[in-house]
Specification:
Layout (H helix, E strand, L loop, with lengths): L14 H4 L3 H9 L4 E10 L3 E8 L5 E7 L4 E6 L9 E8 L12 E8 L4 E6 L4 E8 L15
Antiparallel strand pairs: 1-2, 2-3, 3-8, 4-7, 5-6, 5-8
Length: about 150
């Protein structure tokens, strides 16, 4: 939804199949379909791409990455975020044992505090990738219990 722009998005499967992964499906429910800003953070044609997009009319960012059959470790900065603000990043990522052939449904979901100075290092499984939602932390109580992101 983030790496390839289209204002028409759909979940291409039977709803029953998503019921088993409602925690991961949350990203699909949250992600907008139109954008005010797009940043291409890293790419190697045919191998991987990582894109950040800011929602139309808002301040939330969404990052998506997709990789080929060899896997990739994404490395990029969140310097596009507004300085002096804290954000909550929710990362939907491949589990350490994920693989497109043997374990395609293995994933993790983690939340961290991030700023415009944060550098992300995110391993992606062969044939995998990750998605990230980044929301401004306007309520200090929302940060309670969350740790600062450390690669």
């Amino acid at each position: 939804y983030v790496t390839m722009y289209s204002p028409l998005q759909m979940a291409a499967d039977l709803p029953e199949n998503y019921n088993r992964f409602l925690d991961a499906f949350q990203f699909i429910k949250d992600v907008p379909v139109d954008w005010d800003d797009s940043r291409y953070l890293e790419a190697e044609p045919g191998d991987y791409i990582t894109v950040a997009r800011r929602e139309k009319g808002g301040n939330n960012w969404y990052v998506g990455s997709t990789v080929d059959e060899n896997g990739h470790t994404a490395r990029f900065s969140l310097d596009f975020l507004e300085p002096g603000k804290k954000y909550i990043a929710t990362i939907y990522a491949d589990a350490p044992d994920a693989h497109y052939k043997d374990n395609p449904q293995a994933y993790t979901i983690r939340k961290y505090i991030v700023t415009n100075k944060t550098r992300i290092v995110q391993p992606c499984a062969p044939g995998g990738g990750f998605a990230m939602s980044i929301e401004e932390a306007t309520d200090p109580a929302a940060l309670k219990g969350l740790k600062n992101y450390k690669p």
